[in-house]
Specification:
This is TetR family transcriptional regulator. Residues 29-48 bind DNA. GO terms for molecular function: DNA binding. The chain crosses the membrane at residues 146-164. With 174 residues, the protein is mainly alpha-helical. It folds into two domains: 1-65, Orthogonal Bundle (Arc Repressor Mutant, subunit A); 73-173, no CATH class. It has helices at residues 9-23, 30-37, 42-47, 51-71, 79-93, 95-103, 111-114, 119-126, 136-158, 166-173. The chain is elongated and about 60 Å long. It starts with 8 loop residues before the first helix and ends with a helix.
Length: 174
């Protein structure tokens, strides 16, 4: 008798995450995940009591992934500008995931939950010569203002209303 494959939580989350990356949260169901993995829905419901529980884990993974894409982008040497460019780049490279998290607001977050109040971002800014003299409050205000512009550009890029042209985006953000 062949050995049965063990379906782990990690396999389920990774499969669900990849599905959301490609098509957004609308495709996320126990049946669709099971089909991708090649199993019944039983292992999914053994690992997760509800689909909302699984969606919460996928959201957490998605937010971490998107933040890593954004924070890891370095183009101009200006930390503030590079953060904005990273955010727009993320919308360009991960449009379905970007729309699910930041446009459809599947995670039900507020603006301040994602970015301006993030102490890691504030510390990153304070390490830059250009922003070192500003207080935390001034940095957060600058981030909030710029965030609104960047989010608008990124949203337009994600839905295909604005062609991704990094030089043009730099020109707008400067």
């Amino acid at each position: 008798m062949p050995k049965s494959t063990t379906i782990t939580k990690e396999m389920i989350v990774e499969t669900a995450f990849e599905m959301v990356r490609k098509e957004g949260f609308t495709v996320l169901s126990a049946r669709n995940i099971a089909k991708q993995i090649g199993c019944s829905t039983q292992p999914i419901y053994c690992c997760y009591k509800t689909m909302d529980e699984l969606k919460a884990e996928v959201c957490k993974k998605a937010l971490s992934h998107l933040q890593n894409v954004m924070l890891g982008y370095q183009k101009t040497g200006n930390v503030f500008l590079d953060l904005g460019l990273g955010y727009v780049r993320m919308a360009h490279t991960e449009p379905a995931l970007f729309k699910a998290i930041y446009i459809d607001n599947i995670t039900n977050v507020k603006l301040t939950d994602i970015f301006p109040e993030n102490q890691e971002i504030v510390e990153l800014m304070k390490n830059n010569e250009e922003y070192r003299q500003l207080s935390d409050k001034e940095i957060k205000n600058s981030i909030a203002k710029a965030w609104m512009l960047v989010h608008g550009i990124a949203s337009l890029v994600a839905v295909g209303m604005f062609a991704y042209d990094e030089d043009k985006i730099i020109e707008i953000l400067e």
